[in-house]
Amino acid sequence: MRHNTMQQTFRALTLSYKVAPIAVREAVSLNEIACKNLLDKIGEFTEARDVLVLSTCNRTEVYYASEKDLSKELIKLIAIEKGFIATKDVSPYFKSITGHEEAVQHLFYVALGLESQVVGDMQIMNQVKKAYQWAADANMAGPFLHRLMHTIFAANKQVVNETAFRDGAASVSYATVELVEELTRGMENPRVLMIGVGEIGADVCDNFRKSSIRNVVIANRTHHKALELAQKTEATAVYWEQVWEEVQKAEVVVSSVPGDCFFIGKSALQNHEAGKAKFFIDLSMPRSIDAELETLEGVRVINIDNIRNRSTAALERRIASIPSVKEIVVDTVAEFQTWTKEMAMSPALQQFKSRLEEIRQQELARYLKNLGDAERAAVEAITKSMLNKIVKLPAIELKAACMRGESEELLNGLSTLFQLEKQEA
């Protein structure tokens, strides 16, 4: 007897910075439109349900519920979405998590920042929330995914309130600011150019405001966004047309604009004074700064993979909090698994109730013919109340069996005793 098995077949397909170099991550990175397109393609060409597509600088992942492992199909759909059909170059970097509980735990770990390059990164939760919103908009989120995501959000609140895991600003953006401070130590009022005001760009500017760096210039294609951010973070906004001039002027250039929209090549530094220190920090995916710039004397290029965990007191506190966070995950996942099992048994309980209701109706039909309205109402009420009490006992027992992980046996017994139909997924 299979009870609503979709709850037991959650899987994940993941490619992350842990195994995939930056060029491979670029090849499969998906922007918002691509994520939404992929959701539609998965809905159209596969049997997957409860689908979540998550793509950041560090990872491209698909979470889904299916009886079959759909890794090959999903990699092919990502390849089609990205415009390259041969998947052999990227396939080896994808890892398939086919165990239900392992996939659930992996999503918890990713969302809470346990898997981030800078541990406890706060941005990942916002990215997960967006991915969930897109799944809901595409009608790819069923009761299972809705419940799972809200359980993760609740666990996140618990982590914030009960641990030091979110203390201090040790995100990628803070690590960037910290690095800029180190690189420019000894320079008088270094000029920093921030190109792009997306989520990371805005976050970096916000962190600059809290740092010793005072001369920050912001350039963005949509000028009013640069202006708004500059006002908020006490920086200066320049028009996009001035970006190349500003690249020449700045000691540090930070870019968070995707490289397929904007690219800084060697030609941008034709007037570079040999030996003068100049730093480029590339937070983009795909990359937007040519690594070849390093061949110029005094120029250094740092990409997102170079921004490693910055050894700060905040980071150390976070690392020390990891066991507490994992404990919260263990408890929350256990509660969630109990709910999943209860979901699986509810159709059987529903059937049991329907079977008893059928018997009640048959018996009432035989005896009610000769009764008046008042007697009829009394008999109706009494028999309904009896039925509800009878159903309540096995429901309580089944719930207790779920907690012990023994519900399958009881469900089979119930099914046999009352000749309930076999439940197919």
From TrEMBL:
<comment type="function">
    <text>Catalyzes the NADPH-dependent reduction of glutamyl-tRNA(Glu) to glutamate 1-semialdehyde (GSA).</text>
</comment>
<feature type="domain" description="Glutamyl-tRNA reductase N-terminal">
    <location>
        <begin position="14"/>
        <end position="163"/>
    </location>
</feature>
<dbReference type="InterPro" id="IPR015895">
    <property type="entry name" value="4pyrrol_synth_GluRdtase_N"/>
</dbReference>
<dbReference type="InterPro" id="IPR036343">
    <property type="entry name" value="GluRdtase_N_sf"/>
</dbReference>
<comment type="subunit">
    <text>Homodimer.</text>
</comment>
<dbReference type="Pfam" id="PF01488">
    <property type="entry name" value="Shikimate_DH"/>
</dbReference>
<dbReference type="GO" id="GO:0050661">
    <property type="term" value="F:NADP binding"/>
</dbReference>
<feature type="binding site">
    <location>
        <begin position="121"/>
        <end position="123"/>
    </location>
    <ligand>
        <name>substrate</name>
    </ligand>
</feature>
<dbReference type="InterPro" id="IPR015896">
    <property type="entry name" value="4pyrrol_synth_GluRdtase_dimer"/>
</dbReference>
<feature type="binding site">
    <location>
        <begin position="196"/>
        <end position="201"/>
    </location>
    <ligand>
        <name>NADP(+)</name>
    </ligand>
</feature>
<feature type="binding site">
    <location>
        <position position="116"/>
    </location>
    <ligand>
        <name>substrate</name>
    </ligand>
</feature>
<comment type="pathway">
    <text>Porphyrin-containing compound metabolism; protoporphyrin-IX biosynthesis; 5-aminolevulinate from L-glutamyl-tRNA(Glu): step 1/2.</text>
</comment>
<feature type="binding site">
    <location>
        <begin position="56"/>
        <end position="59"/>
    </location>
    <ligand>
        <name>substrate</name>
    </ligand>
</feature>
<dbReference type="GO" id="GO:0019353">
    <property type="term" value="P:protoporphyrinogen IX biosynthetic process from glutamate"/>
</dbReference>
<dbReference type="Pfam" id="PF05201">
    <property type="entry name" value="GlutR_N"/>
</dbReference>
<keyword id="KW-0560">Oxidoreductase</keyword>
<dbReference type="InterPro" id="IPR036291">
    <property type="entry name" value="NAD(P)-bd_dom_sf"/>
</dbReference>
<feature type="site" description="Important for activity">
    <location>
        <position position="106"/>
    </location>
</feature>
<dbReference type="InterPro" id="IPR036453">
    <property type="entry name" value="GluRdtase_dimer_dom_sf"/>
</dbReference>
<feature type="domain" description="Tetrapyrrole biosynthesis glutamyl-tRNA reductase dimerisation">
    <location>
        <begin position="325"/>
        <end position="420"/>
    </location>
</feature>
<keyword id="KW-0521">NADP</keyword>
<dbReference type="GO" id="GO:0008883">
    <property type="term" value="F:glutamyl-tRNA reductase activity"/>
</dbReference>
<dbReference type="InterPro" id="IPR000343">
    <property type="entry name" value="4pyrrol_synth_GluRdtase"/>
</dbReference>
<feature type="domain" description="Quinate/shikimate 5-dehydrogenase/glutamyl-tRNA reductase">
    <location>
        <begin position="179"/>
        <end position="308"/>
    </location>
</feature>
<keyword id="KW-0627">Porphyrin biosynthesis</keyword>
<protein>
    <recommendedName>
        <fullName>Glutamyl-tRNA reductase</fullName>
        <ecNumber>1.2.1.70</ecNumber>
    </recommendedName>
</protein>
<dbReference type="InterPro" id="IPR006151">
    <property type="entry name" value="Shikm_DH/Glu-tRNA_Rdtase"/>
</dbReference>
<comment type="similarity">
    <text>Belongs to the glutamyl-tRNA reductase family.</text>
</comment>
<feature type="binding site">
    <location>
        <position position="127"/>
    </location>
    <ligand>
        <name>substrate</name>
    </ligand>
</feature>
<dbReference type="Pfam" id="PF00745">
    <property type="entry name" value="GlutR_dimer"/>
</dbReference>
<feature type="active site" description="Nucleophile">
    <location>
        <position position="57"/>
    </location>
</feature>
